[in-house]
Amino acid sequence: MKKNAMLWNKFLFGFYILFIAVNGLNAQNKSMLFSNGIVHTGSGTVYQSGVVGIREGKIALCADGRAIKIDPTAWDTIIDLQGRHVYPGFIALNSTIGLREIDAVRATLDYAEVGEYNPHVRSLPAFNTDSRIIPTVRSNGVLMVQAVPQSGIISGSSSVFKLEGWNWEDALLKADEGIHLFWPEYPVLRSDTGRFDAILRKQQEIIRFLQESKAYTKSNPESKNLRLEAMRGIWNGKQRLYIHCNRARDIEESVRWMNQLGISRMAIVGGRESYKLTDLLNKFNVPVVLERIHRLPDTEDQAVDFPFRLPGLLEKAGLTVVLTYDGDMEAMGTRNLGFTAGTASAYGCDEETALRMITLNAAKVLGIDHQTGSLEVGKSADLFISEGNALDMQSSQVKMAFIGGKSISLDNDQKALYRKYMTKYGLKPNE
Amino acid sequence: MQRNAWLFLFICCAFALNAQILHPTNGVPDRRNTLFALERVILHPAPGKTVENAVVLVQDGKIIAAGSNIKIPTEALVISLPGKHIYPGFIELQSQYGLENPAKGNRRDWNPQMDRSEPGPYAWNQAIRSEIDAVEQFKVKAQEAASLRKFGLVAVATQQPDGIARGSGALVSLGDKPENESVILPRAFAGFSFQKGSSTQDYPSSFAGSVALLRQTFLDAQWYAAQGGKTYYNRSLEALNEQRKLPALFETRNYMDVLKAAEVGKEAGVNFTIAGNGDEYQAMEALKKAGNTLVIPVNFPEAVELGDAYAVESVPLSYLLHWEAAPANPALLFKSGIPFALSTKGSDNADAFFTNLRRAILAGLPAAKALEALTLIPAKLLGVEGQLGKVEPGFRASFFISTDTLFAPGNQILEHWVDGVRYAEDAAYYSNLSGVFQGIDQQDSLRLTLKSRLMGGEAELLSNGKSLKVKSAWSANRLTLKWNDGKAANVMSLNLDTLSKPARLNGVIVDEIGKTRPITFIKTEDLPAKPEKAELPAFVHADSIKLRYPHVGFGYVNPPKAETVLLENATVWTNEKEGIRTNTSVLISNGKIAGVGSSEELLKIAGKSATVRRIDATGKHITPGIIDEHSHIALSRGVNEGTQNNTAEVRMGDAVNSTDIDVYRQLAGGVTTSQLLHGSANPIGGQSAVIKLRWGKTPSEMLFENAPGHIKFALGENVKQSNWGDRNTTRFPQTRMGVEQVYFDAFQRAREYQTAWENWNKLSASEKAKKVAPYRDLELEAMAEIIRGTRHITCHSYVQSEINMLMHVADSMGFKVNTFTHILEGYKLADKMKKHGANASSFSDWWAYKWEVNDAIPYNGSILNAMGVNTGFNSDDAEMARRLNQEAGKAILYGKTSEEEALKFVTLNPAKMLKIDNRTGSLAPGKDADVVVWSHSPVSVKAKAELTFVDGICYFDRALDAQLQQQNEADRTRIVAKMSKEKASGKALKRLRAREKHYYTCEDLYHEEERHVVE
To answer: Is the pTM for the entire model greater than 0.90?
Structure first.
């Protein structure tokens, strides 16, 4: 009897997919072992013949399969991946997923609140777990997002979500983990003195706001100021301050100001010219959350491939780099996040390092690296399995994904339409 | 302004000469006919000629005699000017003198304006202002004339710079005689441009639209002349026809505009004289070929403030390169034999103008040529070479007198003569007032020292060897000195006597009781002259300019050439029935693919061909060049002429900008051919330009030779203006229902148009002679081409209903819709598209950016392809275009299209859509050598284009790219150092406002201005 059960818990990957298609998957409480996979841990290591075990929603084993001996009886299910790839779920920072649906339809946009200083405005309650975009992004391996308000000077506070959940409470991974400061940038060339002065005034206004909010944290007034209340986390180190800016001068000045004010946890978001300030950023331990690298050079004379090379340059200078997909059409385009890492890997960055920029580094910046972001024992089993290299469209085919050890559906409306019309034409869907 | 009374008298007299012939005189007429003899001058009667110790006789506004050995008649008023130089006065071709500034376009509101704002029997478009005669609005403005004379000018061709056809301009003198006598030629020239100016009408909103309007207007005028105004009167067209006999002057913004103006002129049979902008040296070969005479400015770009350390690299190298080379523009044009006049336009003041002129000469422009370009050439262009441009008998007495040869540093112009009237430049005339004056006084020994060369400076007074504290003030040639000697206030009032030599000051001393005693001061010594202005640094010489092709960052100093190349031992994606071949070589020769196979057999084919460059491509992949079916790069000033629902007459080929850095960037992504499409703002947009990315060539050289015609159509939200805000609810159509009717109407009219011409063409010559040919309408002509199948539609489309609709319209009119672009719901009617024979050019995975793309799916390409529809992926985006190979890879990701098929999505299939697959799109012997060598499989994210060949010319080489970056840095460092020298010399540098480069998309409605502005 026991032997029989043994027979049934071993699958070749292809059969397993077929098996769950027929029987459904309720393996959440059962243990599961993937063997013979190319396991990318997200922390820079790759096991060419790796094993990953999931138990009680967590990663219970992640190792070089040739170096350890597996006890098959210890696992409810064992799946032979036959050389398929295992990755930690990708994490998209500075995203508006869940806050935006159709760019040209105002009624569907919830990422830009009115007002300049809105630290109290939170993405948390607006996050739409039923966005039609989410399943399309998930099916390329993006399993977590940081949903960020995007307007004014202090746009609000961001939260981190799993891309699976019945409602925002259910999907929540970390609430109000950061405040976003959109630093007013000087024009490139000093041409319009008036504009320079206006920006200088704005910067001084920001400093004053920060100073007052710092003073406020030391008080406990009966009449609450919601904006200042919302800043407490910045001063007690619970929240990260994300400074959105690109130009070297602005990066330099904003980082120095914040340091002087006593803010220890910051990040530069955008960071086009961060390569000019790597020593400063290292000194203050500031990670760089890079603007989408699939973009044109910043000036007409910059090297044609410079944005592609930038992640590698920063990494080599010792910075913590995160890749994002922010910019035009970012929500729906976030399914290409892995391919930006792929591009970085073609331009001077080691492939596992590029992967780390959308997994472990991202988790570190968000302060969730103790629970996810890489395939390490004890972390949440947030991972997916791809036929080929998930950073390369040539071979990426995400076949299974797990969040908290629970297998999630990779189907979406677009796949449904695909099947529907292939069927209409008498063709066989090729998924 | 102060003026010597002696001179003033002359002026008043001269005024009287002719004015009274027709005009009633109040009192006794004062007609004089004074004969002036200017003697002992160094005469420069015409460029390159000099006569020492010459005499010029002037009477009645004309030169009577000029030269040496001329006897001065006894009745002459002799003006002795020993050692002074006389030059013919300059003529400006681009002036607005005596005319008001163009009215600012004042729109009543921001609703669309489809028609003229004011009705009248004029052209339908407000930018066609041929009915305007500048002479009717001309008013003499004495002050303005005086400041223009400082440039050496004596006459200007004047017109308001307003509109595309600007009407006639006048040639006027820069004197202050009344209008009747200042007009030299009332209708001297006809003016044109590509700027709509004050017109508030929507059309044209783009550069290409402006070109189309002008082209159509010339045709309209032709038809108008033929029909003779019998049933339809149009003053603008009538005037345009009248102006055919005048010289035509065209104003432009850059050398590409110049080339376009030349081309439009040739089509219309007008030989434009084209006013350039100083960048013409960048296209000398093409300009020489065009053969037009140019008018070029000498207002060279200024050195700019480079800002803080971070900002230096933000000044575009293109600006720096141009700044360095611009002073050599005239010299370079001269050397290449391009005829040109020079213009003062854009120079802030005469000093700056002459300084820059000297710079041009230092850069290699012969001085005589400079003079000719300011005198004889403009005179000839306007047909007044018998009146102006020389100092010879019979010519107008319009010249100037200077202290030195014209272009010598420190030269000063002393006086100007315009039509026989003498104008002295006050400042210059008393060229050295400064010095010591000895007083002649019975009472005291007085010494006066004037410090300034000009009136207005300070004075010092010594009385009996003692310095007095004097306050000095000049007013109207009179110097007043006040001082207090301790007992009482004293005043001395002196008048400057300029007839005497040496100079004298005559006047009185007034004592405390108001009693006066006469006093005279005579100049006894000059103060030492201040050192001459330092010679200009010779920043640049024409011979030292290393032109880049194009003259911007990443331009090639040595443009790559076609060569015989053997790319060896690679994986070759042939896109032919041989499929993907490993360990294979490709031979490129004479710009074509000579063969695909083993190196041995290819070397045999290469045979005796001089040198074969063998490139080891082991481990690499070789593919045909990428073809972007939907691109908006390399376009000037606007991508949409969305101001009417049908703008089929607009040609994107008119707006190609060959210097756009995106051309180079996309070569680095393996792109070799792009279709530059009109935007999607209207149901029927403009005609496409298919270009090859020949970096460094001119716009017309970039056009794909003999590519079949294409045109943009658009459906859905954009054309019904769904996302344009609440004001844009007027233009038809506002619904998909209306869109259908726009098409029926346009094609119905095109059919009728075609029939009218077919009937006309059937007529015999004698029958034709009796009738008027049908009106030629470039819009309907383009539509008729679609019906005939010689022009092919690329239709922006999203939802299935409208796609279906357009195929029905086409079927009913008997033609095919060639390509649906975007076509994001194409998968819903792949069967119908297949049946119709339409191509599909899609995005790989875009959706969710507007409502109509809600059902877009990334499997679209795979489904259409599987259904046998010829399918491709395009960019519509300057960034994505350089990763189109990755986009092709997504056809594998979504729907598992095979790798070979996926690559065809961005190579062979778009070639078929553009109907250029006989030339490019696959690696078949005989096809153009548009070839890319990749580091990895081209459909992989890892792939980098290492070599990109277009027509067998290697326009991108990743190794060479590193060198170009170094070259950029070296040039930047060199030029920035030069600019810093200007700053060190104390010059206040202006600031450059670097405009962000604009990247066009389908939906851009209005065009941008120039990218970089110095303020």
So the answer is: yes
